[in-house]
Amino acid sequence: MRIFIAKDRRKWWMLSFAFVATVINYLNRQTLSVLAPVLLQQFRISATSYARIVFAFMLAYTFMNGVSGRLLDRLGTRIGYGLTIAFWSGAEILNALSAGALSLGIFQFLLGVGEAGNYPAGVKLVTEWFPPEERSHASGIFNSGASIGAILAPPLLAWIMLAGGWRTAFVAIGLLGFLWLLGWLAMYREPEATGKGEQPDRLPLKSLLRSRFLWQFTLSKVFSDPVWYFYVFWFPQYLKVAHSFSMREIGETAWIPFFTATLGNLAGGAVFTGLSRAGFGPATARRMAILIFSALMAPAALVGGISSAAGCIALIAAATFGYCGALANLLALPGDVFPKGAVASIWGFASMGSGVGGMIFSLVTGWLVDHYSFRPAFVLFGVIPLVAAWIVWVLPRKTEPAHRLSQTAQV
Questions:
Q1: What tens digit of pLDDT does each residue of 308-357 get?
Q2: How far is 77 from 217, CA to CA, in rounded Å?
Q3: What is the separation of C-alpha 35 from the centre of its chain, rounded to a whole number of angstroms?
Q4: Hey, how many other C-beta atoms are within 10 angstroms of the C-beta on 212?
Q5: Where exactly are the structural domains of the chain?
């Protein structure tokens, strides 16, 4: 009994590391967006040029997602996660040396290289430490780090910028990752259930590429994740352009949609649990939850037609709540179908779809804002979550035991 309790406590400690890493990940990622009103003015960067800087981040993020997942499955969670956060923290600090759009784009590219490893590592950790019935809940907790980081970013970065300048903000946030790394290397140990017993479950790349689930899941990410990137990278600039918010006002209000995103992460696991208790199987319950939360993102299409800043923020807050509720269940899907030794690879490959969608829709956003306004952009990002939800709904529902998948990789 004591051994069981100790192990049960340990898994929550390990999950807390993934949570904190994701908080730091989003503090790093949001530094650019929160400081964008200042940087765009200082370096005379247009919306189209800013979109290209975001594109540079997404290009690196896209490519490295396919690489980082395989590396994490080979190196293991402890070493792989540590290398990932060390690289992105160093890249964040380099952003302080930016002298214009070109250098900022280069440093954001390097940041994307490192940040690509966070979600494959977090999904791998959850799959290794938690049984299937707890993974939606655990995934929601770990992913809530993204919204917590996004909540903290506007007031924290606005305060640092006003007190010490934008270069100080990049350095201060970058150093947080190295503090996390010290604790991680000192405390993290692989669970007893992994190690030797789990290594045979790592699947060859050719076997993974034969999976219909992998390709459909990746396609769903093309349409789902750009919604989140839109709010992460463009929301502070939207407040400035559409509602004439100052840097101080951005710091005071831009955290609100990310607070509701935190609630969405917790609600995602709760809805899955409720549907499961109502008699739905895991595959159907996860898909129903994703569909419900995706529908909450659609009303954001009305944002561009509302003059009230409070009303716009409320609709955006509902959309981020819906996105994170859906993602809490989406994060758990690969673990339902694939063995533990392959989930980082699956998630990394699927996140390449996320990056492709992020790059495409980022450029589209910049063009829409420069040539029209934010209004058509909000319509676009109100519609595409429904496309993603439909793709997930028609994913193969049959889950197979790990030993069969490791032999056939067929879904």
A1: 999 999 999 999 999 999 988 887 777 777 766 666 677 777 778 888 88
A2: 23
A3: 20
A4: 11
A5: 10-408
Q: What is the pLDDT of residues 105-145, one digit of tens each?
A: 999 999 999 998 888 888 788 888 888 777 777 877 887 78
Q: Give the Cα-Cα-Cα angle 153, 159, 164 (nearest 5 degrees).
A: 120
- For 180, the token pair is 């996390």
> What kind of fold does domain 10-408 have according to CATH?
Growth Hormone; Chain: A; (1.20.1250)
CA distance 74 to 68: 10
Give tens-digit pLDDT for 24-77: 998 998 898 888 888 988 898 888 888 899 889 988 988 887 787 778 878 888
Q: How many helices (H) and strands (E) does the chain have?
A: 17, 0
SS3 44: coil
State how far the alpha carbon of 164 is from the alpha carbons of 158, 168, 171, in Å. 10, 6, 11
How far is CA 3 from each of CA 9, 131, 221, rounded to the nearest angstrom?
10, 17, 39
Amino acid letter, residue 401: P
| Tokens 């673990």, residue located | 335
The span from the CA of 108 to the CA of 112, in Å, is: 6
pLDDT band at 405 (very low <50, low <70, confident <90, very high): very low
Q: How far apart are CA 15 and CA 18, in angstroms?
A: 5
CA distance 309 to 314: 9
Beta strands in 294-390 (DSSP E): none
pTM of the model: 0.70
Buried b or exposed e, range 18-27, using 16+ CB within 10 angstroms = bbbbbbbbbb
Which letter does DSSP use for residue 202 in this model? P
Average pLDDT estimate for 393-410: 52
